[in-house]
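Final paragraph of the annual report: two paired records, presented back to back.
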Amino acid sequence: MSKKVLLMTQNFYPVIGSSGNRMKNIYQLLNENGIDADVLTTEPAYPNKNMYKDSEFWDEESLNEEKHKIIRVPIKNNRFQNHILSRLFFYLEIMYRFLLELWKLRKNGYDYILVSTPPIFIVFSAFIGKYVLKSKLILEVRDLWPDSLIGVKTFHNKPIIKIFRYLEKKMYRKADSIVINSIGFYDHIKVKLKEDKPITYMPNGPRQYEITEEKPGTKEFRVVYTGNLGLAQDIDHLKQVANLLHAEGIRFDVIGYGVRTEEFVNYLAENNLNTVHVHKPTTRKKSLELIKNSNVAVAFLNDEEVFSTVLPGKIIDYMTCKTPIIAGVKGTAADMITENETGFTFDQADVEGIVAKIVDLKNDKVTEQQLGENGIRTVKEYFLWENNIKKLIDIIK
């Protein structure tokens, strides 16, 4: 008899971004490997609910047909505002609606609940669900909370932060197993545990069919940035990169979404940076296609210490597409890029150094090609989902 698992997550196909893609891959690969997995999620709404009215985002027919296994709860308060109270009510509504669904699912015989955090409020509903469903619980950590909340400087209430830190410890200690997507999280979580508990590193990555084996030739040298333009991504330095690339006459493509997208677009217009092309949020397939057709990819993270533990999904996507990386990052992400020779890393403030290295690569096709080959080798060795899912299967079986 196969094991049954309920995945609980805010973001799931067709939601764009690394979290939705991660949970989609976990769901598909568990089912392909003899584990009966279902999903409890919200209706797609990030970053904009209306965009999912476009059929282009619903591009996997097999998932569209599995409505009996993918339970989507409607959320009335779906505005992704930065105001702390608005977000609090949003997460509380998700928690409430998930609890209602868990009560309906109590006779389904789930052996495990796998819950993805952040947000932490979904984890609270999963802890209650653990007893309602009589299941074990796997906590899947995609971001360190509340440190990431503090890192983006949106919340500084010390008494409430103290409560959040207490809840964080309880969250780790109550889980039966913990899965992390960045090795940088390991020490942070380990010191908060009272007893020895398995912490399994299962990074984001591509599926085998997504890997670029042959990179197409490009007539024009192109630089690309994809992903969130939010509070963690250091948009101010990205603006400066756009300015300097324009001065060099280098095309810069940006697929961006998030709370600072409008600010970035307005900056380009005000400064007449017409070599910078901003694309609307699109499917993962089209995003990978744009990266594949670019010569260099850039990434930035906020300089706060918490972000030194993060390995952004976009960096793995860049390697998947055989595209060299120039990044203003430190810690885990910088170590991965440097040790595997998939690109070059700089201090976030060294914008001139970043652009100078891009110009160097424009004139050095041999190095550009070698960095791309190193990226593919690294992805195949460490980041393929078909290999890494075995770690989660071992926990469940």
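The closing record of the year follows.
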Amino acid sequence: MLRRISLTSQISIGMLVGGFAGLILGPQIAGIQLIGNIFLRLIQMAVVLLIFGAVIEAIGGLAANQLGRLGGKTAGWFLITTLAAAVLGLLIGYLVNPGIGMNLSRVSHATEIAKAPSNIDQTILNFFPSNIFDSLAKGNVIQVIIFAILFGIVLNQANKAGTFNQVLSLIKQLNQLTVKLVMLVMRTAPIGIASLMAWVTADSGLKVVLPLLKFLMAFGLGSVVFLTCLFTLISWYAKIPLGGLIKGFSRIILIAFTTTSSAIALPVEMTDAESRLGVSKSISQLVLPLGMALNSNGLAMYLSLACLTLTQLYGISLSFVAMLKIILLSVIACLGTVVVPGGGLVALTIVVPTLGLPTESIAILAGIDWFSGMFRTVLNVVGDTTTAIAIAADEKELNHDIYEQVRPVTK
């Protein structure tokens, strides 16, 4: 009897079939984008609710002495990995020099990009919600997380005597139903992803990728180096086999690579962190939603590499101070950046003008944003999940037995 094809294999097949269909049939198949967009919306409709409930449940259910300790460890890991990614992006940029020899005329092609706040004060102010229902309706992830953190802290403090156990139980049940809803939609992932890949290749083919192949190659190289170092570090730190660790990440990486969205990958990330990587539920529900909005390793590397590429394009030599500025801005711009496809362009509108580069130069990278988003998202979700593994190991909440035989998630 033939084994049932796993969801991971179905998605891989869908991605390949969609890509070839787009290349062969061209513009006549571009209308298939509608199916892919419906799939993305069905996933996105529940993501904000999932984040909202998961953060409240995670913080509300913690013991008082765990709250400050876990928060500090999480912030520390996020800062270290994001800084490392930004520095590596700059180093790879100097190694490959992707901006040398590129065609400057591409800057003249106007691209509509979402407006970023004009100053740092407004950026910080926009982190805080004035109306939580408005934040939920607009899908403002960072505002939702800040409210959920505060609500979770209040629930945690007020429930010391078990007075609000029913509220905590209701939130847990809501989270369970939300996850089931998302996983139901995920059954259509092979079709949705095939449709998106067909549209991308039909719309642009190779004409958009080839002129910036050097940039993509540099980003791909940086991604491989970063993942290799990160997996090796976590394998040593958490005392888990490297092979089992990589195998446990297989579906997370594939979903992130094909959807280019940390938000869409989050439900799978949380499920696999617990069932395939041995992270306890309390750790995964605290670290992963926070990481989605606050820990963007892939975006930090992308921004530093992109800024160096643009300076090379304009023939600008960078001083050591300018390099530090790029690294710092790349880390800061990751906070609260949109976690859906295209968020990299929004982040660029924060960093590029601050460096004195013309805003229209962002159009150079806009044509391949989908492809660079594949690398960004993989680094983002892997960085979040490895942080969860490290913290779970610290807290003795990592199931090492699961690495002896990593099994597919049963439905």
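The chain is about 70% helix and 0% strand. This concludes the annual technical report; the extension proposal builds directly on these records.
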